[in-house]
Design goal:
The complex is a heterodimer of chains A (798) and B (141).
Chain A (H helix, E strand, L loop, with lengths): L2 H22 L5 H17 L11 E8 L4 E7 L1 H24 L7 H20 L3 H19 L6 H32 L4 H7 L1 H4 L4 H15 L8 H4 L5 H10 L4 H13 L3 H24 L3 H24 L8 H39 L15 H15 L5 H18 L7 H25 L17 H19 L2 H15 L1 H4 L17 H18 L1 H10 L7 H23 L4 H22 L15 H19 L3 H21 L3 H22 L12 H27 L7 H4 L2 H5 L4 H9 L1 H23 L1 H6 L1
Antiparallel strand pairs in A: 1-2
Helix pairs in contact in A: 1-2, 1-4, 2-3, 2-4, 3-4, 3-11, 3-15, 3-19, 3-20, 4-5, 5-6, 6-9, 9-12, 11-15, 12-14, 13-14, 13-18, 14-15, 14-17, 14-18, 15-16, 15-17, 15-19, 15-20, 16-18, 16-19, 17-18, 17-19, 17-22, 18-22, 25-29, 26-27, 27-28, 32-33
Chain B lengths: L5 H24 L7 H18 L2 H7 L4 H21 L9 E6 L3 E6 H26 L3
Antiparallel strand pairs in B: 1-2
Helix pairs in contact in B: 1-2, 2-5, 4-5
Classes of the chains: A mainly alpha (798), B mainly alpha (141).
């Protein structure tokens, strides 16, 4: 256990503490308790950060399940440090903001903050894990916490729908990612990302390498809401706004980006990897920004804008990896590295301005009661600080100076131009699409500012009279806005410490040629094509924005709703449910006879089948001791009792017959000198007879009249089959002696476990784990029966 | 349903103590003689069932005010905690240990952590069995 492990576990500890404290600390807002965690963790991670130097990677490991190569290994390099700082830094701001956003009296705050802490721990775990399976576990945990947080206001139908949709899509991707991880393990023999990277070409030669790549990409694309999986993100906006700001723009949706960046050293040299990411990213960028224009709800607009920006970051990661496949000369390869730099830089910028914008929309919603741009307008003079902060965020997103978004957008254009210059001519379309998407981005940024703050003021449409938000609420977006300006003026703050080492870590094969390469980011980079592209998009954007009412409706009416992706999802879910119900209904008939038939047939087919296929039946009586006469008598009594049960016409007789079988079996145990078993069998028999008699009262009359001959014959065949199978298994198991039985080991129980009773020492010592699970199963069965009986009446009244 | 059988009730009053004592003996003797938590739990359960049969549910519940669900859960928890205890000491999950000590009157006595585990098994078995039986017998349609 290192401090890094403890840092990840701290939020999980608070998941338990917060609900406990909630009852006793009614005087203060629970958020203040929760705030301790992200602030403490931010300080801790900031301790690893230095402006002038890259962090020396730290690896700490704790064995978890060593037998299957699962170690709780944490790896802190500049990429994970960046994410850890984002998670804890923006986490602190979001928790602070939520204290003012969520009412102490009306909300179930303990649940809100417990879920939030769960997410924080899971997200930190995902970005710090070096072990693929541990990463996967944390990854799915972020999906679970996201589900809980989207459905926080579960009384609303839309919240439940959104939560479910998000979980289905991200978890499908997560599962596919797990397949990819398992293939990587098969190819490399290790779950450690570090070790897999170190293996290099030996893994890429594996025939399942490309499928593994696509499986992992599917996980990244669903998580980061890439086209066509983006449809969950707009519906996730049903979550409280601090959550939208935190999970669904700044951190969780970036997990896919993180995964792609983390996997780049493994897959980056594959052309399939680069092109898939570029094309998916560019389509997402375009489609997201285009759809954002359509929205009237500011949060929905921001959701589509997030989708679009994530597409932008993704496509940059794809472009960067073009430099890794060795097709180009050194100079071009290094030019491609600029795309990686842009991707990581934009990732930071996006978290900064989008987090701020979400909080500002939350403030608007809080102060005016609406997020609809048709109702808002003319409140600039009422909320001047909010207006300024929104403007900073939106201008940064639009890519205007003097905000950090400008730099990363210019770098984005540079990367796209580099891509088209070094590929065949059809690739020229990519910078064009990127440029058009940037025009859309510019227009929706203008919508956010001017449609909500300027224009005519409709006092009658607003629920309350707007006034400036409290300082506590403005503090978080203000901090982020200052950061957006600071990163424009002093990008050097993060260049040598974060960006450069991250990029170098992503493409080790390229930087091996020039280890002294240094990244340069400046706000002013001369009069070049990129700058003219920006000037062009601003001019066209302003013209289009001024005429927006004229072209918006006709354009969007062209797109039919019938064939939208959401329709595909909804129809798919309905049909899946129908199919599932039909399949389940076909075998879950409610008849015990049917269920027993399935179980017994399965047993016969698998066990007898295996016995026949492997030809392992074996009968050897040479070692057997002779059968004594009293054993014969007992055997005959058992068989007679069994036959009696078969032909008895009343339940009471059957119960007694089964009791006789049980007691004769316990006599067998006595004869074979197994007092423990005999004793247990006796008591079990007594208690189960009592149970039978209790249930007897409730059972219907035996249906002897309606059973047909065919039914009886089928049952007879199944019964004979099971009997034969078990007899054969028993005889063969006794006859075979493939290896020395472990029984000799147990003979030493007195020396090893201090017990003279071997049976007991097996139960409680040698194989205590079995026993423990058995009592857990027993307990669950007991609770199951209890709930079945006790909750039945309540259910019936519904 | 209230039914009184004086013979059964009188015999039960004595028998229950004998069975209970035996079950406790079986539980603790399990390490070196036939017995153990599982059997002990079942025997105690059968003693309680005898009480239920001889008297009625309500009076037995007045005498033994135990929530058997919680008893079962406690048992599982004890068993689990003995496992966790070995984890804390940095040895594999559920490792058991034993030692011999000299106690007054009892002489040389063995103390084994397996005993605690067995106690958990005992409680889990007893609690579960009684949960099932009482919930079925309390049920009225």
């Amino acid at each position: 256990m290192s401090t890094l492990h403890l840092a990840i576990l701290l939020p999980f500890v608070f998941v338990v503490i917060i609900p406990l404290l909630y009852k006793y600390t009614t005087a203060i807002h629970t958020g203040w308790i929760a705030l301790i965690v992200p602030v403490a963790l931010f300080v801790y991670f900031a301790g690893h950060f230095s402006i002038y130097d890259a962090i020396e990677p730290i690896t700490v490991s704790v064995p978890w399940i060593p037998s299957i190569d699962i170690h709780f290994t944490l790896y802190l390099d500049s990429l994970s440090l960046l994410f850890a700082l984002l998670i804890t830094g923006i986490g602190s701001l979001v928790v602070l903001y939520s204290i003012f956003y969520l009412s102490k009296d009306r909300e179930r705050l303990h649940l809100f903050y417990a879920y939030l802490m769960l997410f924080m721990g899971a997200m930190l775990g995902s970005v710090l894990s070096d072990n693929l399976l541990v990463l996967y576990t944390f990854w799915e945990l972020t999906s679970v916490s996201s589900f809980l947080l989207i459905a926080y206001w579960y009384q609303r139908q839309r919240s439940r729908y959104g939560a479910q949709k998000a979980m289905y899509i991200t978890m499908t991707g997560g599962f596919s990612m797990l397949l990819g991880f398992i293939i990587l393990y098969v190819a490399s023999g290790t779950f450690s990302i570090r070790e897999i990277i170190a293996m290099g070409d030996t893994i890429s030669a594996h025939y399942l390498f490309i499928p593994a790549m696509f499986f992992i990409l599917l996980g990244a694309f669903t998580k980061s809401a890439q086209f066509p999986f983006h449809i969950w993100l707009p519906d996730a906006m049903e979550a409280p706004t601090p959550i939208s700001a935190y999970l669904h723009s700044a951190t969780m949706v970036k997990a896919g980006v993180y995964l792609v960046a983390r996997m780049t050293p493994i897959f980056g040299a594959q052309l399939e990897w680069s092109w898939t990411i570029i094309i998916v990213g560019i389509i997402t960028l375009f489609w997201g920004s285009f759809n954002a224009l359509k929205q009237y709800d500011l949060k929905a607009l921001l959701a589509y804008s997030t989708i679009s920006q994530l597409g932008l970051i993704m496509s940059l990661l794809g472009v960067g990896s073009m430099g890794m496949n060795g097709m180009f000369g050194d100079e071009v390869s290094f030019a491609f590295m600029g795309a990686f730099l842009a991707a990581i830089f934009h990732l930071i910028n996006h978290s900064v301005f989008k987090g701020s914008l979400f909080m500002m929309v939350g403030i608007l919603d809080h102060e005016t009661g609406t997020r609809d741009i048709r109702k808002l307008g003319g409140i600039m003079h009422l909320m001047p600080i909010s207006f300024t902060l929104t403007m900073i965020g939106a201008f940064s997103m639009a890519g205007l100076p003097p905000f950090s978004g400008f730099i990363s957008k210019e770098m984005f254009f540079t990367s796209m131009l580099t891509l088209s210059e070094n590929n065949s001519s059809w690739v020229n379309i990519i910078p064009v699409i990127a440029w058009v998407a940037s025009i859309f981005t510019f227009i929706y940024c203008m919508i956010i500012i001017f449609k909500s703050f300027t224009g005519t003021y409709h006092a009658n449409l607003l629920e309350r009279v707007p006034h400036e938000a409290p300082v506590g609420m403005l503090a978080s977006p203000a901090t982020l806005s200052i950061l957006a300006i600071a990163l424009f003026l002093f990008p050097g703050l993060i260049v040598t410490s974060i960006l450069e080492p991250t990029v170098k870590g992503m493409a080790p094969n390229v930087f091996a040629k020039d280890p002294d390469w240094h990244a340069h980011i400046t706000a002013w980079h001369g009069l070049n094509l990129e700058l003219f592209m920006t000037i062009g998009l601003v001019i066209i954007g302003i013209l289009l924005f001024l005429r927006i009412e004229k072209w918006k409706t006709p354009i969007f009416s062209l797109i039919s709703k019938r064939y939208s992706l959401n329709q595909v999802y909804d129809k798919g879910m309905i049909n899946l449910e129908k199919f599932g119900t039909a399949v389940t209904r076909s075998y879950m008939t409610g008849s015990t006879t049917h269920y027993l038939t399935y179980i017994f047939c399965f047993l016969i087919i698998t066990v007898l089948g295996t016995l026949l296929v492997t030809n392992s039946f074996y009968l050897d009586t040479s070692n057997d001791s002779p059968i004594e006469w009293y054993e014969f008598v007992l055997g005959i009594a058992t068989v007679a009792a069994a036959v009696f049960v078969l032909f008895s016409t009343s339940r009471l007789m059957s119960i007694m017959g089964i009791g006789v079988i049980g007691f004769t079996v316990s006599l067998f145990f006595v004869i074979f000198r197994a007092p423990d078993l005999a004793l247990t069998q006796l008591v079990v028999e007594t208690i189960s007879t009592t149970l039978f008699l209790l249930c007897f009262y409730f059972l219907p009359k035996m249906k002897t009249s309606i059973t047909s001959l065919k039914f009886k014959l089928t049952n007879a065949v199944i019964a004979l089959g099971v009997g034969t199978t078990l007899t054969l298994i028993g005889l063969s198991a006794y006859g075979h002696r493939i290896f020395v039985p472990i029984a000799e080991y147990f003979n030493d129980s007195y020396k090893l476990a201090g017990a003279k009773n071997i049976v007991n020492s097996i139960l409680v010592d040698f194989r205590a784990f079995d026993t423990m699970l058995e009592i857990v199963v027993l307990f669950s069965a007991g609770i199951g029966i209890y709930t079945l009986i006790k909750l039945r009446h309540a259910g019936r009244n519904d | 349903m209230k039914f009184t059988d004086v013979y059964l009730q009188t015999a039960t009053k004595i028998l229950v103590f004998i069975i209970m004592t035996f079950s406790i003996y079986v539980l603790f003797a399990g390490h070196n003689n036939p017995g153990g938590g599982f059997i002990g739990g079942l025997i105690t359960a059968s003693a309680l069932i005898l009480l239920y049969i001889a008297f009625d549910l309500q009076s037995v519940r007045d005498i033994i005010p135990v929530d058997f669900k919680k008893l079962a859960a406690t048992g599982v928890l004890i068993a689990l905690l003995t496992g966790v205890a070995s984890l804390v000491l940095n040895i594999p999950f559920l490792s058991q240990a034993f030692t011999y000590v000299d106690l007054p009157f009892l002489g040389k006595t063995e103390l084994a952590t397996a005993m605690i585990f067995d106690l958990g098994v005992y409680l889990a078995v007893l609690g579960t069995t009684m949960t099932i039986i009482t919930s079925i017998s309390e049920d009225d349609i």
